[in-house]
Amino acid sequence: MKSNDSLYSTLIDKKLVPVIKITDPNSSENLADALITGGLSVAEVTFRTDCAAEAISRMKNSRPGMFVGAGTVLTTSQVDEAVAAGADFIVSPGFDADVVRHCQKVGVAVVPGCVTPSEIMAAISLGLSTVKFFPAAAFGGAATIKALSAPFPGISFIPTGGIDMRNLREYTSLPCVLAVGGSFMATEKLISAKAWDEIAARTRSALAAVCSIASV
Ligand code: 3PG
Questions:
Q1: Residue of 16, 111, 134, 199 with the most ligand 1 atoms within 8 Å of its CB, for mutation
Q2: Exposed end of the chain (fewer CB within 10 Å): N or C?
Q3: Which CATH number fits the domain 4-214, given the four candidates 3.90.950.20, 1.20.1330.10, 3.20.20.70, 3.40.50.720?
């Protein structure tokens, strides 16, 4: 497991987290290479398929420098499975105090989903300062995040859900947005089609869009 500081530096620097749903673990190494070719050394592999843990393990083994997180983590036993596979961070769609506390106990970074002031306050009470905002578009998008950042100036958001090249900049231009997550760089369809060049190209385009904001 890599250090949380270097994870957050990478997120701040690149501002993008590809959200991956993988069904064929044999694609893990090629997928990791495609993302790295596109300029990103981070990925969130969702526990929505049976091979998520194997995919995390294979990505980490083939590309040890990569930050590979586990997404859609709902239970403490999934935290254990993800950590055993080598996951560098844990992402939950919602806020569950048991999951957060368990991650803290085993020493893995955790980013729970919070979309209301009460959920954010619950995260703060457990010492967190970064939360996922999911599903971002359905919960009012960048406008809601901006409104939430007023009472919670110390909180950073990772919006995910309904984000793609068309609305990416709305989110990344907000100072309170640490990074955005999304499947648009490596969709399930592209992964199944083994379209590694296209995944690398989409990753590169997304990075270029984010960098052009940063340099304004
Ligand atoms: C997630 O698990 O974070 C989301 O399902 C990703 O959402 P997207 O497919 O709309 O990017």
A1: 134
A2: C
A3: 3.20.20.70
In tens, the pLDDT along 78-102 reads 999 999 999 999 999 999 999 999 9
Whether 44 is catalytic is yes
Rounded to the nearest angstrom, the distance between the alpha carbon of 216 and the centre of ligand 1 is 28
- Distance from the alpha carbon of residue 181 to the mean position of ligand 1, in angstroms: 7
**Matching residue, tokens 């709902």:** 74
Distance from C-alpha of 206 to C-alpha of 96, rounded to nearest angstrom:
31
Q: What is the pLDDT of residue 136?
A: 98
Distance (Å, rounded) from C-alpha 27 to C-alpha 192? Answer: 8
pTM: 0.94
- Alpha-carbon span 176 to 83, nearest angstrom: 28
Question: C-alpha dihedral over 13, 16, 17, 22, to 10 degrees?
Answer: -130
Instruction: State the DSSP H helix or E strand holding residue 77, giving kind and residue range, or none if neither.
Output: helix 76-85
> Considering all CA atoms of the chain, what is the largest pairwise distance in Å, rounded to the nearest integer?
46
Q: Which of 52, 44, 114 is nearest to 78 (CA)?
A: 52
- Give the residue, by CA position, lying nearest to ligand 1 atom 9: 183
DSSP structure class, residue 146: H
Domain boundaries defined on the chain: 4-214
Return the ligand 1 atom nearest residue 71 CA.
2
